[in-house]
Amino acid sequence: NADAAPLVVSIKADGALYLQDVEIDSDALIPRLQAMSGVNPDIRIFVRGDESVSYGKVLGVMGRIQAAGFSKVALVAKLPEIQ
Question: Beta strand pairing status for 17-19 and 7-11?
Fold first, then answer.
């Protein structure tokens, strides 16, 4: 379902990875994405990195997600803060 809400992967300043709002081990990222998406390669995945995270690290995470077969991976600068 391409209309499904996007999954958000965040990389914090200390390098910690979060999927939605839950911290996740780097090795668990791809299996969790696959489980949460129902192995839907068309689900949108947004990757956002803290301002202090190197661009290379963000691209590395995006590359791993794309290599796992997810085609709609987008870099988002900052999600709007929910007030």
Answer: antiparallel
What are the C-alpha distances in Å from 9 to residues 63, 69, 79, 81?
13, 16, 11, 15
d(CA 81, CA 65): 25
The closest alpha carbon to 12, from 48, 59, 63, 66, belongs to 48
User: pLDDT tens-digit profile of 9-37?
Assistant: 999 999 999 999 999 999 999 999 999 99
| Composition of the chain by helix, strand, coil, percent to 5 | 30, 25, 45
- Do residues 31 and 65 make contact, with C-beta atoms less than 8 angstroms apart? no
CA dist 53 and 50 (Å) reads 5
Q: Helices 55-67 and 29-37: crossing angle, nearest 10°? A: 50
